[in-house]
Design a protein that fits this description.
single chain, about 350 residues, alpha/beta, Isopropylmalate Dehydrogenase, 2 domains, 10-stranded mixed beta sheet, two-stranded antiparallel sheet, about 40% helix, globular, binds nicotinamide-adenine-dinucleotide
Length: about 350
């Protein structure tokens, strides 16, 4: 097949891991006989430096004309002045809104060979295979904001249809897995959460009676994720809770650098990115873990291009590379010699061939 893939390397380690994902996608194209046209565009701090806009119109235009978008990461100390007129993260929120991607899928898979990289005991990690479905275009991140010298406010708003569509995405995914859905809210305190719970309960009873539904308050969910992570199948939650819980869940996998994400809307065009940020502390050293970005490329193949076999091939290649002992610094145990981003990418691509 032919596909146009827009790459948004962004800032910090973003360009390194995006280059890795591009190489893997090219290796997939070569092996399976596809033609992927890659187009790189500016985004985030790099775009602010180039033209004063974290999401230039040309970037939006290319993304809207593409089959899929792969993003590295944006942000960093250079652009984090709270009084700055524009910030890299505005580009991220703007891009999600422009692409209409409201469902953020964050699968958390544990590689047996990496059990030692997690701060949790191996027996707690046994059998962990969960998927967090985070609402991405509503809630407090998108509500009206106010600020004066001594006070500030962020408005959290959810419409019923926004809850219904994300819960449907999560329930459909659960029906292809272990048919368990856990909805996370803060219904004992927040009005938006009470609407979330009422809507979820009714929709699940009406449309997905065969799926087992559990409801947890977000504070309890944070605890259960660490104490009994293998009990979870699909977790669905609102924007900010999902943001926080998935960083926590990344510790199950051992490193932020391992986890991918897919952001989907009503069309096939999706936005794919590792869950990590621009990691300024290791930027420019060539040591970032590319697994999250490469696994995001696998999700791109699956969800936007419909190439399931190719997606599975990439995921197996990551697993095989790790099983063979390839480790970047963030997942290397004491006594293991860490390898560079480029070498890790080569190790993964070797298993594709
Ligand atoms: P971060 O995810 O960038 O880094 C957290 C820690 O994880 C750091 O110690 C980092 O070195 C490590 N890490 C992250 N990715 C790694 C990888 N691939 N390989 C090895 N180690 C990795 O989070 P942060 O430090 O809180 O944020 C840094 C910047 O990134 C901030 O400007 C923030 O706003 C931005 N950010 C961007 C995104 C995004 O683009 N989607 C997401 C989160 C944070």
């Amino acid at each position: 097949m032919e596909a146009v893939i827009v790459l948004l390397p962004g800032d910090g380690i973003g360009p390194d891991v995006t280059a890795s994902a591009r190489q893997t996608l090219q290796a997939v194209a070569d092996k399976f006989g596809h033609r992927f046209a890659f187009k790189e565009e500016l985004m985030g701090g790099a775009a602010i430096d180039a033209c004063g806009d974290p999401l230039p119109p040309a970037t939006i235009e290319s993304c809207m004309a593409s089959d899929a978008v792969l993003l590295g990461a944006v942000g960093g100390p250079k652009w984090s002045d709270p009084n700055a007129a524009v910030r890299p993260e505005q580009g991220l929120l703007g891009l999600r809104a422009a692409l209409g991607v409201y469902a953020n899928l964050r699968p958390v898979k544990i590689y047996d060979a990496l059990a030692g990289a997690s701060p949790l005991r191996a027996e707690i990690l046994d059998g962990v295979d969960l998927l967090v479905v985070r609402e991405l275009t509503g809630g407090i991140y998108f509500g009206a904001k106010t600020r004066d010298a001594d006070s500030a406010s962020d408005l959290c708003v959810y419409q019923r249809y926004e809850i219904e569509r994300i819960v449907r995405v999560a329930a459909k995914l659960a029906s292809t897995r272990r048919s368990k859905l856990c909805s996370v809210d803060k219904a004992n305190i927040l009005e938006t959460s009470r609407l979330w719970r009422e809507t979820t309960d009714r929709l699940m009873a009406d449309e997905f009676p065969d799926i087992e539904v559990e409801t947890l308050l977000v504070d309890a969910a944070a605890m259960h994720l660490m104490s009994r992570p293998s009990d979870f199948d699909v977790i669905v939650t609102e924007n900010m809770f999902g943001d926080i819980l998935t960083d926590e869940a990344s510790m199950l996998a051992g490193s932020m650098g391992m986890l991918p994400s897919a952001s989907l809307g009503d069309s096939a065009r999706g936005l794919y990115e590792p869950i990590h940020g621009s990691a300024p502390d290791i930027a420019g050293r060539g040591i970032a873990n590319p697994c999250g970005a490469i696994a995001s490329a696998a999700l791109l193949l699956r969800h936007s291009l419909g190439l399931e076999d190719e997606a599975c091939a990439v995921e197996s290649a990551i697993e095989d590379a790790i099983a063979s002992g390839a480790r970047t610094a963030d997942i290397a145990a004491a006594g293991e010699t860490p390898i560079s981003t480029a070498d890790m990418t080569d190790a993964i691509n070797r298993y594709l061939n």
